[in-house]
Design brief:
about 120 residues; Arc Repressor Mutant, subunit A; 6 helices; alpha+beta
């Protein structure tokens, strides 16, 4: 369940961290920053994330206005496929997400941590 945001914050950074709080939210946003993905694609790109948690986090991010669900018909006119895409507010986080990525990538060796990039 999404945290209720406070009516007042002492610092804009506090608001940003409140909106992005939760281990998986920034990971989901980072996966979506390059383009929209279907649920299954998201699930595959974050193997440690359970279906239940992914569903909860997607709902939280949608309620926060950072992503939206879109329905697309398959080429053959079959069942509609739900995809998730960043909204304008979500896309505005790209520089933040890229900075977090760069910091993690450069800091990992200094901290003795191996980064295992997943293939697309």
């Amino acid at each position: 369940m999404a945290n209720k945001l406070p009516a007042t914050v002492g610092c804009p950074t506090e608001l940003t961290l409140d909106v992005l709080s939760g281990k998986w939210k920034t990971i989901i946003l980072a996966r979506l920053k390059s383009g929209a993905l279907a649920y299954g694609e998201l699930r595959k790109s974050i193997p440690a994330l359970s279906d239940k948690m992914l569903t909860e986090r997607l709902r939280d991010l949608e309620r926060s206005g950072l992503l939206e669900r879109k329905s697309r018909r398959a080429d053959g006119g079959g069942r509609a496929r739900v995809i998730y895409a960043l909204t304008a507010r979500g896309r505005s986080l790209r520089p933040v997400l890229e900075a977090l990525f760069a910091w993690g990538l450069s800091s990992a060796p200094q901290l003795g941590i191996k980064v295992r990039m997943l293939e697309d």
